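Troubleshooting log. The previous run stalled partway through. Resubmitting the same two chains, unchanged.
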Amino acid sequence: MNAHVPAGKRRGGHVVRILTIGAHAFTQLARMKVFHFLALFAVLAIASNFLNLPQHEGPESAGAAVLRSIKSWSLGAMTLFSVVIAVAATALLIPKDIEDRTLYTILAKPVPRIDYLAGRLLGVLLLLFVSLLAMDLLMTAVLQARTAIVLGEQRDMAAALGWPHDAVESLLAETRAAGPGWPLQGAVAAVFVRAAVMASIALLISTFSTSTLFTTVVGLLVYFIGHFQADARDFWLQGGEAGEGAAARLASLALALVLPDFQLFNVIDAVIEGSVVPLATLGRLVLAGGYYVVLFTLASWFIFAEKEI
Amino acid sequence: MAAGLLAAGALRMTWEIPLTHLLRGQELLPPRLDTGTRERIGQTSSAVALGGLRTLVATFLNLRAHTRFTEQRWGELALLFDTITDLAPRTRYYWETGSWHQAYNAASHHLNDSKLPPLRRREAWRSSIRAGRAFLERGIRNNPDDWRLHAALGFLLTDPNKIPALRDADDCFAAAAEAYRRAAEQPDALGYVRRSMLYALARVDGRQDEALALARALHAEGARNHTPTLLCLLLVLESRADPRLDTGRRAIELFGGERRAYDALCNHWRRTRERFPVDGVAAALRSIEARLGIPESESILKSPPPAPFDPDQAFGN
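Second attempt completed without errors. Output:
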């Protein structure tokens, strides 16, 4: 019975196709040796642990400041790597498929174009997930090792100075809080969601772009301009209180309506500084990221559906 | 499609704005970078900071600040810490360190090593300490729930080497007591904070009754609060409240022995730099010296206590 139903109408057909295309895209990207950057991250994470960078701190802290440095370096590198990978990998996919003629093979079959785009995006997201997971594990391991060293040194120092029990416990609790833990995973999740949004934007650009380079450059520009989206939105909402011209206000409105608000994902800094992102707030951030991803993927489909291939 | 994208953009404004407010309310989003900060960190760092990596830029600037510290370029160091704390306003370490560099390191440099003429040296010393205090107070405004910043301010305001650079001693001790009180209000504050509040309060003229009530409350809480300073102050404050008190007998009772009482009171008597009140201490010392058989010629009361820190002398005026 199912044999007579068009492939696109079959129950679960979309999902299976998207998963198949996604797995293929992931394999394709893995073969391009994009994971080699992980070696660079490993060097960075390990170096941030073992290089004793100059810090202004008293002997009683026993090197605790380095924990913040490790988090800062690691999450910073994760943000940069994930955004660059999201843009570059997505920018590469469609041109590569055209060059290899894979695109014609796929679209010659009863594969809706939205399935193709969603599958390709899924491949990139899978790549981002695996990369971030590897970086997260490495960061957590380095942080765990260093936290154990610092805790040991602080215990020895406190015993030598005869600190009271509550002072020792307070110091150790603070050091443990600066070490690895669930709050840090909230920041990693925010890094992933931001990179996922960037991948969907790169997908949209690549549907009308003429080259990989164009997609990459424009994608990275959008990333930086996206951090001003909230400012543009506020500018528009202030309603020309400071006597701004109509053209400037319209431009700010256009910017606010088209670009995503990347500042929302800057919670990473707060986590490095010791804040905890509540689960409900993290959930809202993930939903916000999901909205952007779906929106830009649908926009990509509208353009790609009209494209002559 | 463009219309659809704009419509979707208008739709998402309905949740983007509340989400931004929620994140700001939960202090998960940093305040906006002002133009001054953007100019100070330069174009590249601005781009990185705007890209959501403020703490990374702050880490780099902190390394640069360490170099400025070793080169003793205090003005540049202060500016760097202004920038660092603009980028990472909730990291206590930067507030503590920035204040410490100004109030302690720069001030000591101007006090001891500077090649400036005495008057300018003195002014630089005074300005550094005041700048260190102001920086710490700014840190507290940004992190009102951080007890360690309040305690750091209390510590600075009770430092006998810093008080002459600030306003009069009474104001300093009153402000320190208030700082320690705010620190003690935080649930994770350590026990020493309330004792420090007492130490500051006991030195504020006119608030000794308040200090006595606090000293009695702390003493009643148990042995962990029975530090030599607290016991001495309890004796002093009781003696002030009741001048007829037999301070020698009371001191022995508080310290649990003549020798312990004598050693602690001798130490308290010589802490003149810290401006602790000494009501009844001389009488107590005389009484215990008699019990211990210490001849009058060897009395601690015969040797002159150290003089308080005097900027006029230090700067050769």
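Takeaways: Chain A touches chain B through 59 residues (CB under 8 Å). The mean pLDDT of chain A is 85.
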